[in-house]
Every structure is written in C-alpha cells, then in structure tokens.
C-alpha cells in the first residue's frame, strides 16, 4: 500500500482542518457494532421504493439509455418537477431555466452554498438542525450563525430572527430553513412563514428552504414554502429520498429565480456533469404516476408517530409535538440529567436501542435525543419495550 510522500503531508485544502466527520454517522457506526441493537439513529425509510418506480428504471436500462443526460436534468424530469411544485405548493417554476436536477438534496445544498456564499459571509442557521449544514457552509469559507430555537418550541419566530439580524447575525447574506424539521419534526405555519418572509425581504437576504420532508406532514398540518411568499428570494431544495423511500437513488432538485439558477446549474455541472439516466427515469415515473405513494407512506409514519409519542411521554420524555418528517426530538427524563450523549451511550450498551444525542444537531439540542420512527413497527414496539425497561430499572 502506498504511503503519501512526507513532503506532501500538509498539502491540502486548509479549510478541511476545521471540519469534523459526521458525529451522527460516527455514533450510528459505533452502535451498529452492538449485537442485537435496534437502531433508531438514521433517517432511513424501512419502506421499499414503489414497484412501478423500480420498473421504470429497469425499462430505461433495457432501452440502453446510457449516454450523458442534459446537465440540468432531462427535460421530462424538469417538467415533472415543475408540475409537482405547481400542484403541491401552487408555485410556478419554468422547467427550462428555473429547475436543476442534482445528486440528492445534499448535492443540492452544496450547489447552492458554493454559488451564493463567499469566504466571510454569514448565513443564519436555526437550530437544532441536520448538522451537515455546518460543514458544507464552512467548506465555502462562510460562517454559520446558529439561532437556538429551543425556547420557542423549535420554530424560529419573526421576533427572534430580527433580534439576531440586529446583533450576531448583522450583515448576514442568507438564511436556511428546514421545513418540516430534522431533527424536531416541527412544521412552520403559513402565518409564521409570511412574517419571516417580510423580515427576510426587509434585510435583503437570500432564503434557502430544505423541503425534503415536505410530503410527510401529519394530522391537520399543511406544508407551505417561502417560495409562496418571496419567490424572488427563495431557493427551494427537495428530492425523492424520504417520501418515496429512494435514499439510495440520490435524486434531488433545486428551484429558484432563473438569474441565480444559471449559476447554480453551472456549479452542478462542474461537480457531477449530470445525474444518472435511469435514476432520472425513475423520478419521472414517481412524480408523474406516484401521487399516492407518499400518501401511503404518510399513513404508516403517522401511526408510528402516535405510538412512539404516547409511549415515550408515559416514560417521562417531553417533546414539542412532531408534525412532520419521521423523527421525535425528546427531552430525556429529568432523573437522567442533561448529558444526552451519556444517556444515548448507556441506552445503546445497556438497553440495546440506538438513538442520536441531541447536541449533535447544534445549539438547543443538549438534553435531547432524536429517535427515527422510519424503522419497522415491530422494531419500534421492541425498542419502546426496551427503553421502558431501562428507564424503570434506573
């Protein structure tokens, strides 16, 4: 095996020195080594990709669709995305100039950050939040300014946003909002989004919305988007990973004003050239003919949410009611203190249930743990039984 030459040992992008590997993934890998553990650590649907979607990809392969696709995505897919956004959010995006197909929502985030952020720029990040945001932002040389929303029920209020913009976030260039939220499952009401939009416009910010869980909203809650209120400022990111159980297919997309989308599509082309042909064929089928697929998934997840929420609350866990996505962000019982990392480690080793420490999601997460109910119902029942036994024994 080759060893890097000594004189090259420090020859690398120095920004990498400030980045750390994902603690969420590291904790999951450690937990995975415990025999018999039930993992509620990763946002990975246990459901299968719908059959008609898989068949579309197979048919595309058999048709020898194996050449370079258009760099912004196949025209049929961009049209399908445009149609989907119109019927789901009543927003209009030109498929030829305002939509770009990406390698997952993570690829979309990278495209957007690399396009709009320069070294030293500030971007506001309401927390707790999916921690990869911080690393991708830092990779551009920009500065993530965390906004702790834990005292506001994990929903950024307009008053809090304006206070930050007048203080530590003064001069910020952009804000990113995850709705529905990972890890809290909270959903932003339309009146809150309208007021946030007014402040974003007042302070001349870009807004970036990560709406990957937009199809997974429960009970009487409705998913809305900042694109409904400030389409001239908002860059919408989404994909098929969660609602269609297609995490491994890596299909995401970006929609925004054509002036900024031209640059975003340019970055996307530099990074990936184009998205895999048969994956795009599957996505076309999902968006055009799979309207009921997310509805079926939503019913399953909603039942699991009710079961897990009821069981955890009986054991002394507190939470702001999850309204979407497939996570519960629960405050650990007072008798266990506030060290969520220690609690998660003990729960993994002694009860053989894997949950993710809340501190990994940024400010406001300490004392909480995230549980994913995207696991099977059987696993969730057994996990709750083990948690109950552990808590009661302690």
From TrEMBL:
This protein's UniProt keywords: Aminotransferase, Pyridoxal phosphate, Transferase
Please give the Gene Ontology molecular function terms for this protein.
transaminase activity
Q: What's the domain of life for this entry?
A: Bacteria
Its Enzyme Commission number(s) read 2.6.1.-
Q: Does the keyword Transferase apply?
A: yes
Q: Which InterPro entries match?
A: Aminotransferase_I/II_large, AspAT/PAT-like, NHTrfase_class1_PyrdxlP-BS, PyrdxlP-dep_Trfase, PyrdxlP-dep_Trfase_major, PyrdxlP-dep_Trfase_small
- Please list the cofactors this protein needs: pyridoxal 5'-phosphate
Q: In what residue span(s) does the Aminotransferase class I/classII large domain sit?
A: 37-387
**Which Pfam family would be a valid example here?**
Aminotran_1_2
Q: What family name appears in the similarity comment?
A: Belongs to the class-I pyridoxal-phosphate-dependent aminotransferase family.
Q: Which PANTHER family does UniProt cross-reference here?
A: ASPARTATE AMINOTRANSFERASE
Q: What is this protein called?
A: Aminotransferase
Organism expressing this protein natively: Lactobacillus intestinalis DSM 6629
Q: What are the leading ranks of the lineage?
A: Bacteria, Bacillati, Bacillota, Bacilli, Lactobacillales
């Amino acid at each position: 095996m080759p060893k890097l030459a000594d004189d090259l040992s420090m020859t690398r992008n120095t920004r990498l020195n400030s980045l750390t590997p994902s603690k969420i993934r590291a904790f999951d890998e450690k937990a995975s080594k415990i025999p018999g553990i039930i993992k509620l650590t990763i946002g990975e649907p246990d459901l299968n990709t719908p059959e008609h979607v898989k068949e579309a990809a197979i048919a595309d392969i058999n048709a020898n669709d194996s050449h370079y696709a258009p760099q912004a995505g196949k025209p049929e897919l961009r049209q399908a995305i445009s149609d989907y956004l119109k019927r789901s959010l009543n927003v209009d995006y030109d498929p030829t100039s305002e939509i770009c197909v990406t390698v997952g929502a993570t690829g979309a985030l990278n495209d957007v950050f690399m396009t709009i952020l320069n070294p030293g720029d500030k971007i506001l990040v309401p927390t707790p939040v999916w921690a990869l945001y911080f690393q991708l932002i830092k990779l551009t040389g920009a500065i993530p300014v965390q906004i702790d929303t834990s005292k506001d029920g994990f929903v950024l209020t307009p008053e809090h946003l304006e206070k930050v913009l007048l203080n530590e976030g003064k001069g910020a260039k952009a804000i990113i909002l995850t709705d529905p939220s990972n890890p809290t499952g909270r959903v932003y009401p339309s009146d809150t989004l309208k007021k946030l939009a007014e402040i974003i416009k007042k302070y001349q910010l870009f807004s970036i919305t990560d709406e990957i869980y937009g199809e997974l909203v429960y009970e009487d809650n409705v998913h809305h988007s900042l694109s409904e209120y400030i389409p001239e400022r908002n860059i919408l990111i989404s994909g098929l990973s969660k609602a269609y159980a297609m995490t491994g297919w890596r299909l995401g997309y970006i929609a925004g004003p054509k002036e900024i989308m031209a640059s975003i599509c340019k970055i996307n082309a530099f990074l990936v050239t184009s998205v895999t042909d048969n994956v795009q064929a599957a996505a076309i089928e999902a968006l055009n003919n799979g309207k009921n697929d997310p509805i079926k998934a939503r019913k399953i997840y909603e039942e699991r949410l009710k079961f897990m929420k009821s069981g955890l609350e009986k054991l002394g866990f507190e939470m702001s009611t999850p309204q979407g996505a497939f996570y519960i962000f629960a405050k650990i019982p007072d008798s266990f203190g506030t060290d969520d990392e220690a609690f998660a480690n003990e729960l993994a080793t002694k009860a053989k249930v894997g949950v993710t420490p809340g501190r990994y999601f940024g400010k406001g997460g300490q004392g909480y743990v995230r549980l994913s109910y995207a696991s099977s119902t059987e696993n969730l029942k057994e996990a709750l039984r083990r948690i109950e036994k552990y808590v009661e024994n302690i």
